[in-house]
Every structure is written in C-alpha cells, then in structure tokens.
Amino acid sequence: MMIKGLRNYMNRTFFSISTLGLLALALTGCSESAPPAKKAEVAKKPIEPVSGQSGLFQMFQIARPWAPDAMILKLENGDIPEAKAQPGKYGVWRATFVSPSKKIKRDYSFAVADSDGGVIKGPRAGSEAPYTPSPLVHPIPIQDVHVDTTAALETALKEIAKDKAMTKALADNKDIPVQYILDWTGTNPKPYWRVVFGASVSQSLFSVLIDAGTGEFVKKLR
C-alpha cells in the first residue's frame, strides 16, 4: 500500500516537474523577441520629364496674371540630372513672354525637380526687360501652338529618313542630343518648332523646322 502510494506521489511529482518545465520553455520562448521583419524597400520612382507644350502651359499660367496679353517670344529646353531626357521631353523648359501693351518681356522657367544652378521645381517668373518690337521676331499667341515636341520629333525623323546623307550622319551619331526651340523669326509665315540634332544650333548636325500649328514639315537646315 505504501509502495503504491509512493508511486502515485512520484508520478504526480514527475508530471508537475514536466509541466513546469514545458511552461518555463514556453515562457522563455515568449520572452525572446522575434527578429524585426525587414521593411520592404520601396523603389524610388524616377522623376519624369515633360514635353515642350506641357512646360509652356505651366509657365503661361503664371505669365497671364502678369500680363493678360502675354505672348511667346521663345521657348527652349534645359536638362537636369534629376529627370533623364526622353524623346521630346526634358526636365526643364525656359521661355520668354512679351506684353505688347506694356512693351515689356519677361523670362520664365518650369522644372520638374529642384536641381543645381538655382533650378527650382515648378513654374517660376524671372526678370523683366524692355521690349522693342522687331519685324524679324514675331510674338506667338499661345493658341497657335497646337503641336507638341514629341510629335515634332516624330515628323522630323520621318523627313530625315528620306535623306541618305542625314540618315547616315544620324546613324553615326546615335547618342547625339536633340534640342527644341519654339519661335517665329525671319520671313517664316508661321511659328515653328526647330528640332536641333546636336548640343546647340551652332554645334548641330542639322535642324528640321516643323509648323507649330499644323505639325507639317517646313524645311531642313544644315
């Protein structure tokens, strides 16, 4: 009888010790903090450049309050490392607007991001200067710019493809930058996009003029 009672006591004691051991292990496991989960790295979305027409309209929004009769004298692209250029698109656009009634012209800029050299994101107004009308430089009404730089480039490339010498020159200089200038000068009957294949007009292989209103080819300049 005593042996049986001792066995029962030992069984109960072993059970209690085992239970306490398991409980201790469970508590120990709970007390150890799990390693922090790695935060998923979100890829930074690249800053997109914009077309010439988009940049122009952004600047016109702040030029119009300055002068209700604001017209375009010139528009050209600029480049910043924060927004890699794409066909017909750049990270910066600069324009000169004129007020015929005030006889004043004013510089404006639009950038998709802040950058070195004082480039500030968004549309910005610059300095003013007196404006003297010239028969060789015509102001352009904003409503006459129906064609964008992306379409102007496409038409320019089609015309280049018709010229063997120009096609070869472009093939030999595949990485050459393309610049865009909107103006209305000389005896041209309408405002146009000048699509410049080169770092500048003076350093270009050639240029192609595209009607800014209709998108039609005007002429090639070497």
Explain the overall architecture.
The protein has one domain (50-221). The chain has four helices and ten strands, in the order H-E-H-E-E-E-E-E-H-H-E-E-E-E. It has helices spanning 2-31, 52-66, 149-160, 164-171; strands spanning 50-51, 71-78, 89-90, 92-99, 104-111, 122-130, 178-183, 192-197, 206-211, 217-221. The strands form two sheets. Strands 6-5-4-2-7-8-9-10 form an eight-stranded antiparallel β-sheet. Strands 1-3 form a two-stranded antiparallel ribbon. Strand 8 and strand 9 form a beta hairpin. The longest helix is centred in the first third of the chain and has 30 residues, at 2-31. The chain is globular and about 50 Å long.
Q: How would you briefly describe this protein structure?
A:
The N terminus is likely disordered. The chain has four helices and ten strands; from the N terminus they run αβαβββββααββββ.
Q: How many independent structural domains?
A: 1
Helix/strand order = HEHEEEEEHHEEEE
How would a textbook summarize the main sheet?
Answer: 8 strands, antiparallel
Q: Poorly predicted ranges (pLDDT <50, ≥5 residues)?
A: 1-32
- The secondary structure category is alpha+beta
Q: Mean pLDDT, as a whole number?
A: 86
Q: Alpha-carbon distance between the termini?
A: 119 Å
Q: Give me the side-by-side strand order of the main sheet.
A: 6-5-4-2-7-8-9-10
Amount of beta strand: 25-35%
